[in-house]
């Protein structure tokens, strides 16, 4: 005998099987009833989901004197509350053709997101020699050796939808330090004064610094200098302060440690001739406010056996 019970208010269906096939008046006191159930129940607005479908199974037996029951539960399907939400996105960077760049993307997603990387609309799988993706739980990295200039894109997908982040990477040839050095002191002061005079004429309101080119995450071989090129939008022009692992670094031109260049107003290039592994931070500030950019440099150790 099989009885199907529909309870619409709970979206539950119960199937009873293994009912007694007969009835004995003599053994009524000792009669045993065995049964099993298979329930499907939908829960709405549960934590982290819009809808969850659970399969509940039970089995047991009972007499007039005792009852025994066993339950098990399994999530059959669920609908998440929202698509992945970005915690860390791709930003705009300016790097050298010889650099090894690492892009990092992190999201909030339940269940964990599935990532896919693109370079100029081409999947990174097409060039595994230069582009290497590594995925974790809700975090992914793309390491680029000898970066190609253009748009880098990362998509994060879960059952609720797809989220996308973009960033533009500008690739430069090695800078012309000699030309910059001649205008590094007096030339920079003249550019700042000229920009301020122009702003007075145009009566431009103060604008706090906002980074348009950030500090990248770089992997360098021992003996290779680190060149970090950043740029902001700001009015009046911003001044830049550099820090490595919390220690401020100033221009030491001629001492062979750190050199700071200003190719144009609101753009600054720091050249670390003997870079350290760790956190690199730059603060751009003017009278309207300040902003900071943080990146990481890793010195790759080459082991030879």
From TrEMBL:
Pfam family, one: I-set
Classification via InterPro entries: Ig-like_dom, Ig-like_dom_sf, Ig-like_fold, Ig_I-set
Domain Ig-like positions: 84-170
Record protein name field: Ig-like domain-containing protein
Organism: Thelazia callipaeda
Organism placement in taxonomy: Eukaryota, Metazoa, Ecdysozoa, Nematoda, Chromadorea
């Amino acid at each position: 005998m099989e009885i199907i019970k529909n309870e619409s208010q709970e979206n539950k269906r119960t199937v009873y099987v293994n009912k007694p096939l007969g009835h004995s008046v003599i053994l009524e006191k000792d009669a045993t009833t065995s049964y099993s159930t298979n329930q499907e129940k939908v829960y709405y607005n549960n934590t982290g989901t819009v809808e969850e479908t659970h399969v509940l199974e039970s089995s047991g037996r009972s007499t007039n004197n005792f009852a025994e029951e066993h339950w098990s539960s399994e999530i059959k399907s669920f609908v998440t509350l929202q698509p992945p939400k970005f915690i860390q996105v791709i930003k705009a960077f300016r790097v050298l053709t010889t650099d090894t760049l690492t892009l990092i993307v992190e999201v909030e997603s339940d269940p964990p997101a599935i990532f896919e990387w693109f370079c100029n609309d081409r999947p990174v799988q097409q060039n595994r020699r230069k582009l290497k993706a590594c995925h974790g739980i809700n975090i992914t990295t793309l390491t680029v050796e000898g970066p190609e200039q253009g748009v880098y894109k990362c998509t994060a997908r879960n059952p609720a939808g797809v989220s996308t982040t973009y960033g533009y990477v500008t690739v430069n040839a090695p800078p012309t330090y000699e030309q910059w050095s001649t205008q590094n002191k007096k030339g920079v002061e003249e550019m700042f004064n000229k920009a301020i005079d122009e702003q007075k004429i145009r009566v431009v309101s103060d604008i706090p610094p906002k980074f348009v080119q950030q500090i990248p995450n770089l992997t360098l071989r021992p003996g290779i200098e680190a060149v970090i090129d950043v740029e902001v939008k700001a009015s009046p022009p911003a001044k830049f302060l550099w820090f490595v692992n919390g220690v401020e670094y100033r221009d030491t031109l001629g001492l062979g440690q750190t050199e700071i260049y200003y190719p144009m107003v609101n753009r600054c290039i720091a050249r670390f001739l003997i870079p350290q592994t760790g956190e690199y931070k730059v603060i751009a500030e003017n009278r309207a406010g300040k902003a900071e950019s943080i990146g990481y440099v890793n010195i790759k150790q080459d082991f030879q056996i």
